[in-house]
């Protein structure tokens, strides 16, 4: 059963000061079977990341083996028709992997519902920072670390930063930090949300989430 839930948030600035304005994010959330839907979406995400190029050669594909190694009878040895039999060293592989494409289908509405349910479940780990992508104008890691210190963010845990658009200074400022993942709102997925212990979102990214996933 789908029910509507609201997340009320008050943004901070980069100095850690609480701003006066407060906003609401309306989400459609699955009450009972949400975990099942999230699990299916994560399986779909993992399957889509597989290249599917693993391959082995069968006895017909291995080079050689055209001549019968020895005559059928009279030698005292076991009969053999090819030296590329799977029983022989250098022979083919029985039932080995072949290139394949694995597609796990999940409807668009189900994907959106799984994402909104997980976002609501992570509501206590959300932190809204006003205009983060535009405040960092120089690609310096120490600037971002200073912002994290001001906002009391623990960088020993997995941190997910959701922005409306990745800027080059912000991308370069965060790429050398071990537990930080930067993602745009249009590429948001359940796997990144599930792994994150802390989530930073900008108000512009929240507007994008409303337009893309909540309509």
UniProtKB/TrEMBL annotation:
Q: Which GO terms describe its biological process?
A: translation
- Gene3D superfamilies (UniProt xref): 3.40.1370.10
State the protein's purpose. Probably binds the 23S rRNA.
Q: Which family does it belong to?
A: Belongs to the universal ribosomal protein uL4 family.
- Subunit structure comment from the entry: Part of the 50S ribosomal subunit.
What is the organism of origin for this protein? Answer: Nanofrustulum shiloi
Instruction: Spell out the SUPFAM superfamilies in the cross-references.
Output: Ribosomal protein L4
The keyword Isomerase is assigned to this record? no
Q: Where in the cell is it found?
A: Plastid, Chloroplast
What is the protein name for this chain? Answer: Large ribosomal subunit protein uL4c
Stretches for region Disordered: 49-85
A Pfam family this protein belongs to? Ribosomal_L4
Arranged from A to Z, the UniProt key words for this protein are: Chloroplast, Plastid, Ribonucleoprotein, Ribosomal protein, RNA-binding, rRNA-binding
**One MF term in the entry's GO annotations:** structural constituent of ribosome
Enumerate the transmembrane spans: none
Its predominant location is plastid
Please note every region of biased composition (Basic residues).
Answer: 65-76
Which gene is transcribed and translated to give this protein? rpl4
A GO CC term assigned to this protein in UniProt: chloroplast
